[in-house]
Design a protein that fits this description.
alpha/beta; Rossmann fold; Arc Repressor Mutant, subunit A; 2 domains; six-stranded parallel beta sheet; 6 strands; globular
Length: 207
């Protein structure tokens, strides 16, 4: 049976060690890298290219910011957020940035294994509690509007509207240029704009 390689990134050592130990006890799961920050996530993606990367939302550098960086370095890696955050905006932001799953930290090892296998099959996995919250938010006309930009995408657009290039936006926000390009692709799609100039004009009108 082919091994499933996994990277685990969380800034709480005891929790990270517990997750790593639990996953290592599951047949054909192999943890190939551990880290505590978005920089560590990027390094693991670059050096190990794991099948799955578990990312915490609240860690140095930000878990959401790490998604684009990991995917730019290892496009085939599936990202699963493992977090205590039950905010719908955080969930939607993670999915919009490219995460395939969102699991709350109360999950057991069997549930986590199920989530990993689900996203590896190409399907999304969202904790039942969060699925219910998203549905409720949608019925209330809340923050699940598909065309809304994530907080990071709004930051990028603010700088695009100021005339900054992808390279300079990356320097300002501490992101790689490839990550900024990934954000711009998502932004243009959401705004229905054909290029960054058109997007900037739309953005200025909205401000």
């Amino acid at each position: 049976m082919t091994a499933i390689t996994i990277g685990v990134v969380d800034d709480h050592p005891l929790f990270r060690e517990g997750v790593t130990r639990s996953l290592s006890e599951i047949s054909n799961f192999v943890v190939v890298g551990e880290g505590a920050s978005s920089d560590d996530a990027a390094m693991i993606a670059s050096n190990n290219r794991p099948d799955v990367m578990l990312l915490d939302v609240s860690m140095p550098g930000g878990g959401l910011s790490a998604i684009g960086e990991v995917l730019a370095l290892s496009p085939s890696t599936k990202i699963l957020m493992l977090t205590v955050s039950e905010e719908v905006d955080t969930l939607l932001g993670a999915l919009q940035r490219g995460a395939m799953g969102y699991v709350l930290k109360g999950v057991g090892s069997r549930g986590l294994a199920e989530a990993i296998r689900t996203i590896l099959s190409g399907s999304r996995y969202i904790s039942p509690t969060m699925s219910a919250k998203v549905m409720e938010s949608s019925l209330q006309g809340g923050s699940s509007e598909k065309n809304s930009l994530t907080p990071r995408e709004r930051e990028v657009m603010d700088l695009v509207a100021q005339g900054l290039s992808n390279k300079h936006i990356g320097l300002r926000l501490g992101l790689q240029e490839k990550t900024v390009k990934h954000h711009m692709t998502q932004i243009l799609s959401k705004l229905g704009a054909s290029n960054r100039t058109e997007a900037a004009l739309q953005w200025r009108e909205r401000r």
